[in-house]
Design a protein that fits this description.
The chain is 47% helix and 11% strand. The protein is of the alpha/beta class and 693 residues long. The strands form four sheets. Strands 12-11-10-17-16-13-15-14 form an eight-stranded mixed β-sheet, with helices on both faces. It has a seven-stranded parallel β-sheet with strand order 5-6-4-7-8-3-9, sandwiched between helices. Strand 10 and strand 11 (310-315) form a beta hairpin. Helix 1 crosses helix 4 (55-72). It is globular and about 90 Å long.
């Protein structure tokens, strides 16, 4: 019988289904039900151990035993299966919690073996140990390390960078500036005197350094230094290279350009959600091998809160629901189901802020903890006393999104991680990749995608294993709660019901839209797509040439995305740069208009506003001068009254971008809203809007 068929057969067994539902809801089991559940788990485990393809049976067996042991307090079945599956951190933690129950000679020998062979600062699973061994002994061109979220990939990456034997210039590529700062801190904890470069302009022609960069900064560093190469390249969150956007192509270009400059450079890839490692070969242009850690020790408890307030427990193996309880609304559920630290996820920065403020306003006005008062004082002084983040913090809430200034975002991330008084963290994708915060629960109010890989990466934010297996193990954190909530912020597609149903699927489905992946599979590309790849290849081939060719400099500049037809635009820009002379009195903005904007250029859709720069020169000149001479709080204190007065007299709308826009520049609502009418905004809303701008 197939893996799916055996589980379907169990689902159709009424007594077993009833026992599973009670286990799902945390209800007390009878002796008969306990026996039935454990017997089924043993049968599933035997099936799975005979055939490695029966991954669903293995996961279901573990799910049954984990939930049985946690709900009854009888940890012996969990101890046995953890040994059987090589989940040694779990085995050791169970003994640490109750040594008297595991004091036989067999237990002593087994635990001694774990300490001897599987403990390297922390206890490793069998799969981790084997994967680490494969990683350490690999001598080829490219190696991928694929493991579930919180299974120590960051630690493995940092160890590999610091122990790198291939040379003295390793480079770590991270997807976000938040993760850049965290990785730098992880390196400094181990080697505080290491020369670390986190920005391309920090490079001073050193022979030895560790570079921790986003792909954009790494590309700029190489372009500015034609003879520079990296001894090794470590790509964190490598699944991002499978996307279809320009940032994914940048990752591919960086890998290929690094290989072009120095064929001996070695490449390492880290990700929690890659299924087919061969796709990394297509991205990179050379053979990539790898290893996978498949067995996860966490089995979240999934719930769906419907629009009527009913909370349903979800069984991902049966793809079925059981009603657990009811609440008045979304916030009633969140308040009653909240744990010590809760992630509330929405995709849109605007909705992140709105939802955080909405929850904060519904919470009681309790006294503010002293450590939280210091955070509020810092924001009051350095940002604005009107900043609405302060209202959130007064109630133990914080919101984070990618359009916040990095200094504010990183400061609040740090405080959210360390202060128990901050219980609710509202965030979008900025939190998904590599940010290690101690969440006990995840509440999902809105999603842009229902892709299983993206959901698993998000869900993995709950109960990081270093918080489960600490000095005092907290095994209940192996079953964190994840609640999909239909709310006023939920998009029509995907619905929360559709999204949670994706968890019934087995494995991940890699993105296949990247142009290099499509080409490697023999799929036909459009003329535009072929030209894009040819353009990328030309940049790689010219990467080690001196920076004295004007056309190559323009190609490398990133200006290509701004113009509707780059070939025509580049021809005109080169002509202007060769024929038009700049006078000493021209400002930088004046020169930008002269060479890149004035007179007939057609800009691509996201950059249409660039064409209006000539009309706004005086404003932007004043803005740049203010930015270089005034603090953030001083600028906000000056800008907000200025724009309020201007809006009243001229009825100009404030440009804030698509994420926060409500109207277009004509004051109408359409699909491209990038402006707000600040006459309709109260004082508490304005600082956040100006920060987004």
């Amino acid at each position: 019988m197939s893996d799916t068929g055996s589980i379907t057969r169990l689902k159709n067994n009424s007594p077993f289904k009833s026992a599973v539902d009670k286990l799902l809801l945390g209800k007390e089991l009878t002796n008969r039900e306990s026996t039935l559940l454990l017997s089924a788990a043993i049968a599933l485990l035997r099936y799975a151990l005979k055939d490695k393809n029966r991954t669903r049976s293995l996961e279901f067996a573990y799910w049954i035993i984990l939930n049985y042991s946690l709900s009854t307090g009888n940890l012996k079945p969990l101890y046995d299966i953890s040994f059987e599956l090589g989940l040694y951190p779990l085995s050791k933690s169970i003994v640490d919690l109750d040594e008297r129950r595991f004091d036989t000679l067999k237990d002593f020998i087994a635990l001694d073996e774990i300490k001897e062979d599987f403990t390297e600062g922390v206890t490793l699973t069998l799969e981790q140990k084997l994967s680490d061994s494969s990683f350490s002994s690999y001598s080829g061109e490219g190696f991928a390390y694929i493991a579930p979220t919180s299974f120590g990939k960051t630690e493995r990456l940092v160890d590999a960078v610091l122990d790198d034997k291939s040379g003295s210039r390793p480079c770590v590529i991270v997807p976000t500036k938040s993760l850049l700062a965290q990785t730098r801190d992880d390196v400094f904890k181990r080697h505080p005197r290491t020369k670390v470069i986190t920005h391309d302009e920090m490079y001073q022609r050193e022979n030895s350094f560790i570079a921790i960069l986003t792909q954009e900064r790494a590309i700029r560093l190489l372009e500015a230094n034609p003879t520079l190469s990296f001894s090794s390249v470590f790509v964190d969150e490598a699944h991002n290279a499978f996307e279809v956007d320009d940032r994914a192509l940048l990752i591919s270009r960086l890998i290929r350009e690094s290989k072009f400059r120095d064929p001996s450079t070695r490449f390492y890839y880290f990700s929690p959600v890659i299924d087919d490692i061969n796709l990394l070969s297509a991205i990179s242009g050379f053979k990539v091998e790898g290893c996978k850690v498949n067995k996860s020790m966490k089995e979240p408890r999934y719930y769906l809160l419907d629009k009527g307030g009913a909370l349903h427990a979800y069984n991902r193996f049966f793809n079925s629901f059981c009603q657990a309880t009811s609440f008045n609304d979304t916030w009633d559920c969140l308040k009653n189901k909240a744990t010590a630290k809760n992630l509330v996820f929405l995709s849109s920065p605007k909705k992140v802020r709105e939802a955080a403020l909405d929850l904060a306003s519904s919470l009681p006005d309790d006294p503010v903890a002293p450590e939280l008062a210091r955070v509020i004082s810092a924001l009051t002084e350095h940002v604005s006393p009107l900043y609405d983040e302060i209202l959130c913090l007064q109630h133990g809430v914080v919101y984070l999104h990618g359009q916040m200034p990095d200094g504010i975002k990183n400061y609040l991330l740090n405080r959210a991680a360390k202060l128990d008084s901050i219980r609710f963290i509202f965030a979008n994708e900025v939190i998904m990749e590599g940010i290690n915060l101690p969440f006990d629960s995840v509440f999902i109010l809105e999603l842009r995608t229902k892709r299983r890989s993206a959901l698993i990466n998000l869900i993995g934010r709950a109960s990081r294993l270093n918080y489960v297996f600490g000095d005092r193990p907290h095994l209940k954190r192996l079953s964190p709660q994840v609640i999909f909530a239909e709310s006023k912020w939920t998009r029509s597609k995907p619905t929360m019901t559709n999204a949670i149903a994706e968890l019934h699927s087995v494995g991940f489905k890699d993105r296949g839209d990247n142009l290099r992946i499509k080409k490697s599979k023999g799929e036909s590309l459009s003329d535009k797509e072929n030209k894009r790849l040819d353009f990328e290849d030309s940049l790689i081939q010219s990467s080690n040439r001196p920076n004295d060719d004007l056309e190559i400099l323009l190609d490398r500049s990133g200006l290509r995305s701004m113009y509707e037809n780059w070939d025509d635009a580049k021809f005109e820009i080169v002509k202007r740069l060769n024929t038009l002379e700049a006078s000493p009195g021209n400002s930088v903005l004046e020169l930008i208009c002269t060479y890149f904007i004035d007179g007939g250029f057609v800009f691509s859709d996201p950059y249409l506003r660039v064409g209006n720069l000539r009309k706004q020169l005086s404003f932007y000149q004043s803005y740049l001068e203010s930015k270089s001479t005034k603090s953030l709080s001083q600028r906000l204190a000056a800008d907000i009254p200025f724009w309020k007065k201007k809006a009243e007299t001229t009825r100009d709308y404030l440009y804030v971008g698509r994420s926060f826009g409500e109207i277009n520049f004509q004051g109408l609502v359409d699909g491209k809203c990038s402006y707000v009418d600040i006459r309709h905004k109260n004082n508490a809303e304005l600082p956040a809007l100006f920060l987004a701008k």
